Request: fold
Amino acid sequence: MTWLITGGAGYIGAHVVRAMTGAGERTVVYDDLSTGVAARVPDAVPLVRGSTLDGELLARTLAGHEVTGVVHLAAKKQVGESVERPLHYYRENVEGLRVLLDAVTAAGVPSFVFSSSAAVYGAPDVDVVTEDTPCVPISPYGETKLAGEWLVRATGRATGLSTAALRYFNVAGAARPELADTGVFNLVPMIFERLTEGAAPRVFGDDYPTPDGTCVRDYIHVVDLAEAHVAAARALRSTPGHALTLNIGRGKGVSVREMIDRVAAVTGHDRPPTITARRPGDPARVVASADRAATLLAWKATHDLQDMITSAWEGWLRLHPEAARR
Ligand code: WQD
Reply:
């Protein structure tokens, strides 16, 4: 069986490629290298450079590599950018997916794992988010992920394609320093950046209805997330006709303040944070119920916050050696 990993040169995709090959699966990476990096793809894994909007190249790739399953991660993923460029996000994330599904069904590929997001829930007013919590996205990014789930599920119903939508919560960490996230768009790298500049980390609001007043999220190690893809891929292969929708989180809430304290302990850069205004659109608390993935995939996260911060910091130091000097 050969799995096509779209977006396999990206931060999460490169971890998925390693988890899949580590589990004995053959993989091919398909990536337009707009944000992906070719060096992240292992030498033994073929890399096809192309867009998910290019149906002809997709068809040739699926046939040429005898692909029997797809893990689709190639997408735009910045919430703020999606507000400014909604048409771009719909084109890349929804139209790109439609073209890919067209090629996948025409080629008779039986299994499809879709990279979705907790962003489909928007600002859920519940302590723990289950897969049945209503999806009310609050950004174009979240909308494209929800529309993507609909496309994937409808295609499965119509054609028998076996599908899984994995709703990622807040991803952090790295398997190795060179695979670390190079973007500075999320809390952990944003704290690192401030500390490296000799500035105080920022807390976007401390007047939320949470125990310490700061927002609570469910952080998951990228290695655990990658393993969830292996488990999903195997579940699809063993049971045709699946239509799984699964939260991929740890089920543990961590506040912004707690994260800043833990980062200080790991990095030795200890600066009291600055409290700034709330960031528009931030929900107070988004924490997964990870029960369904545990039951249906026998998958559970094994890495803790310490692993996430330590491995992310090692990756940061590789790119910013000056951060080690204090
Ligand atoms: C986490 C918390 C911030 C930086 C986003 C997407 C989501 C998913 C993951 C892709 C928030 C606070 C941050 C800082 C802070 N992406 N913060 N100071 O917004 O939970 O989720 O990324 O699928 O869809 O929405 O993640 O890391 O940006 O923020 O106080 O310097 O940290 O306000 O409460 P978020 P984040």
User: Anything to note?
Assistant: The chain has ten helices and 14 strands. The radius of gyration is 19 Å. The chain has two domains: 2-171+219-248, 174-217+251-325.
